[in-house]
Amino acid sequence: MTLPSQDFRNEVSTQTRATFLEFANHFADSSRNIIDDICRAGLSTTTKADKSLVTQADIQIEQAFRDEIHRVFPEHGVIGEEFGIVKPEAPFRWIIDPIDGTEEFVNGVPTFGSIIGLHYKAAPLIGVMDHPALNIRLSGAWQQGVAYNNHSLQRYEDSPKSSLDLRIGISKKKNFSRHKDENAVFDRIVTTFPNIRVLDTCYSFTQATLGALDVVVEYNLRIWDLCAAQVFIPEVGGEFTIVSERDSGKGMPYVCAVFGKPWAVERVLPLLENT
Amino acid sequence: MTLPSQDFRNEVSTQTRATFLEFANHFADSSRNIIDDICRAGLSTTTKADKSLVTQADIQIEQAFRDEIHRVFPEHGVIGEEFGIVKPEAPFRWIIDPIDGTEEFVNGVPTFGSIIGLHYKAAPLIGVMDHPALNIRLSGAWQQGVAYNNHSLQRYEDSPKSSLDLRIGISKKKNFSRHKDENAVFDRIVTTFPNIRVLDTCYSFTQATLGALDVVVEYNLRIWDLCAAQVFIPEVGGEFTIVSERDSGKGMPYVCAVFGKPWAVERVLPLLENT
Lengths: 275, 275
Fold this sequence. Notes:
Shape of chain A: globular
Oligomer: homodimer
Largest interface: A-B, 40 and 40 residues
Number of strands of chain A: 13
Distance between the termini of chain A: 17 Å
Strand order of the largest sheet of chain A: 2-1-3-4-5-6-7-8
């Protein structure tokens, strides 16, 4: 998952990348329809969805995605939370998280999102992150920039802030015990940079892409959470650093990553030593 | 600001409360128009507003509010961030925070909100909290319930969660140094209840009112931040506890408050002893 020593992404033509991105955007449209149906069935502005409805949506969207990949790109691999990996040896591997932020979704908080990514020979090539309830979509491809609802995003401005003002998004504290007790890492970060936000959905990655957060620190996520941000951040002039990967005991490894504006990433990284 | 020993709110008739609430809702509509104009002038989905534009919006909205109060209820007092207190001795005192979450607003994050409150003899009577960019409005009056975009909100269900799962919203760590060094309070809370969210806008109060957060802990805010939540939370069956008020050195005191579902408030309060 860390970038391979050799980068083969220029083997994939601009036109082919555009075709893959169009496919991913088209699927995100379908996924919105499925989520809309679920919302109409059980989630309203004033009541909560049943957790099982959400699980059902997750399964339904991931299955539809796998069916589409099988139909359109039968030689490609797929990685997803619900059904594991198929064709792990394929150079092109699609990655999906149908509903990131399940807890927020169930509670009617609109920041949840759908995430789609495509890796080529282990390097991030295509990403789509869609927030149906906020009507916000980011989509991008390697060396082709990022669009925010069809508007091209500008690259970050270089305007470093003080430690007190630096806007940092961080995993909820719970995640820092997922692999081993790393609460001290959380404590160190939020003491050094106290202007923190904790969103617990991929909406923080959207904020980082837009430059509204200067940097994001995520502990013990999976590749399906991060695959789109991994494409977007370098495209807007940022740095995406995978700090460590560890055995999750459940198939795909846990990933710890720091990403955002280069000056902010450089300020945070030293706090993660010994991780 | 703590509830007075005697509660005089039933001196205000149901009809009068409804009239005040209609006034506040009507003003929130005007406030949305001003914010829309500002957004069109300088804030788009892909660029950031100038901080001075926001300050300008704050001043413009608060001035318009004061003018309206002076015209419609000339005997009422007003408290606001930009222009201080007028008629502090008046039994009815309106309170306004034109744009709560200025930092989010400037960065294009849609969770900022406008807050309006009315106190009667120091007790909360009317509240409106409006999120223009999310198209979400909460409005409520003492003993008349809370509406979410015109739908009546139900009262909380009583379903306590484990400490690991309890959904807690908390001030960013920066606020815990505003009055004195109380970082230990933050650390204690997020260690005991690690399923934290840090939003740094009144949108967390909206989530608490809707029951999407179980409890909110806010340190060193002002009454204009809290005045609407103070009305809403008891109306949906919750508890709103002011833990302490301190000299801010800038006129209105700093307020520390814990509010939300009664079982969750009771779990958090013991962690704040010695505050």
